[in-house]
Amino acid sequence: xxxxxxxxxxxxxxxxxxxxxxxxxxxxxxxxxxxxxxxxxxxxxxxxxxxxxxxxxxxxxxxxxxxxxxxxxxxxxxxxxxxxxxxxxxxxxxxxxxxxxxxxxxxxxxxxxxxxxxxxxxxxxxxxxxxxxxxxxxxxxxxxxxxxxxxxxxxxxxxxxxxxxxxxxxxxxxxxxxxxxxxxxxxxxxxxxxxxxxxxxxxxxxxxxxxxxxxxxxxxxxxxxxxxxxxxxxxxxxxxxxxxxxxxxxxxxxxxxxxxxxxxxxxxxxxxxxxxxxxxxxxxxxxxxxxxxxxxxxxxxxxxxxxxxxxxxxxxxxxxxxxxxxxxxxxxxxxxxxxxxxxxxxxxxxxxxxxxxxxx
Amino acid sequence: xxxxxxxxxxxxxxxxxxxxxxxxxxxxxxxxxxxxxxxxxxxxxxxxxxxxxxxxxxxxxxxxxxxxxxxxxxxxxxxxxxxxxxxx
Lengths: 360, 88
Fold this sequence. Notes:
The structure holds 2 protein chains of 2 kinds.
Chain A: E1 3-11, E2 14-21, E3 28-33, E4 39-44, E5 51-57, E6 61-67, E7 75-77, E8 92-98, E9 104-109, E10 112-116, E11 124-125, H1 127-130, E12 146-152, E13 160-165, E14 168-172, E15 180-181, E16 203-209, E17 212-220, E18 223-227, E19 235-236, E20 245-251, E21 259-264, E22 280-283, E23 291-293, E24 311-313, E25 321-324, E26 330-333, E27 341-344, E28 350-359
Antiparallel strand pairs in A: 1-2, 1-28, 2-3, 4-5, 5-6, 6-7, 8-9, 9-10, 10-11, 12-13, 13-14, 14-15, 16-17, 17-18, 18-19, 20-21, 21-22, 22-23, 24-25, 25-26, 26-27
Chain B: E1 2-5, H1 8-11, E2 20-23, H2 28-38, H3 42-46, E3 47-48, E4 52-53, E5 57-61, E6 64-66, E7 77-82
Parallel strand pairs in B: 1-7
Antiparallel strand pairs in B: 1-2, 3-4, 5-6, 5-7
């Protein structure tokens, strides 16, 4: 049996697919795909194996692209992705996720959630989220008012978490009919009048621990947090990380105690590698301690950024971890993050990275 | 029948679609509805909520800038042209 590893890369100017074998040393690149549209996220649909891309064209609007032949040919649709003719237009698709019941979920700008039950051909608005009483108070982060993170419960289709900048984490337990903000214990340092508001929280990314649906790791504008009770409360685990700030975070595919992230300098200090020193940080003890991993990475004069969706891990052992930069570089480790190599440094600005392992 | 001419970047989204279409309709909106029936999904690429033309899509009817409500004659030539703005 031959193992194939794919990196699905979304950039400012199209999607790219890089392919390797289980050794993950040599990579063949295809692209740009999706007609060069800006692509914010790519996923593989469980079951069908179709590749889906979340995109938005400055000219032609938002669309979810779909390829059933590994990225050679594509269709696209935004049918139903609208808040209605009286409301603000949807400008782009920011995030995609597969629900455990076979449905697809799409997060958009301005922030909202849409669901498809036909593989992305048509969509319907999940009105309960944008119907939340706090909606009139929602304000955009630097990237816009975007729904950027969708984490479905792995077995309970009625339960989903979403992340909206700069609003916060919301959870539904009734298939989207109602939503609850989940921020107890999360700091909003940029709000001097209320450091712990109900909304107006700047969540950047969160991920579920392997095999522990009630354990979530959150990368926030203001620190890093872990919840052990399904997001009802959060404990800060920023610890000895070099800064409070960053965008990316990924959780280990099997070990619920391990995740990786990339701290960045504070917003008023450039949002790039702190002191120009590139490093991925890993915890193996649920955030009690962090280890800096920089073997092979540029540790001097590296003033690049890594955005919220631009880091991913595969499911092999040892785990492969990949991140893409604002300068078009892809960096990969095939040993849990201990050692790094650059795959390419000639892509457009990278917005997202996803990994797929195929056997056969 | 009006003649509608589509831009290359739009055709690339619909493999096999023709650049030139003969379409019946009394307004730009009506032409786009007919085009959408012929090439499903095309209207969504050109029209946003409102409904109105997307911000960086221009339509010219017989050389005159138009919007969705603009009238179209039997022998009109309609160009759909993406703006040179919009990219980064």
